[in-house]
């Protein structure tokens, strides 16, 4: 089985498997040895690529922030609003729950890692830049910094509630006639941004 991981494929396979384990069991539920056993390779093979368990978590977070930045950048390139960016944020979290958990768990990561810092900064630059779209649509923003925090808080909160299962166990999801997560996001975040709940994205 090890032959399947030549030419750098092992690195991608380790990250994919780690994300799967984190999604189902949380970020503390794997070791380099367990990932190697899952993939049928030598227990030292993952260490060659990542050095340590923290190295795997950092790499997952880097990939996550890069992917989030790409998603938000695509929304901006298509002329989307800050609300559209918020929906894209929740979609990214739902599509990549393992990475999303790690991205926002700083105690698990090496904040001195330059690649991680750059990826995180790029993602947040896209979030902060989205406030300009409110002004473009005639929505007054007296405090742009507060608007960034408020916007991020609501979509991150929705994503976290959904991934943790609390959106369902609380019964809140049942209040919506349409229980699609992205519809819930658009309606809820739309209240903050002064967008009628029935308005569709461009």
Key descriptive features of the protein:
202 residues; Arc Repressor Mutant, subunit A; Tetracycline Repressor, domain 2; 0% strand
Describe this structure in words.
This protein is mostly helical and 202 residues long. The protein has two domains: 1-51, Arc Repressor Mutant, subunit A (Orthogonal Bundle); 61-192, Tetracycline Repressor, domain 2 (Orthogonal Bundle), CATH 1.10.357.10. It is built from eleven helices and no strands. It has helices at 9-25, 32-39, 45-50, 53-77, 82-95, 97-103, 114-129, 131-136, 144-164, 166-169, 181-192. Helix 1 packs across helix 2 (32-39) and helix 1 crosses helix 6 (97-103). It is globular and about 55 Å long. Residues 196-202 have low confidence and may be disordered.
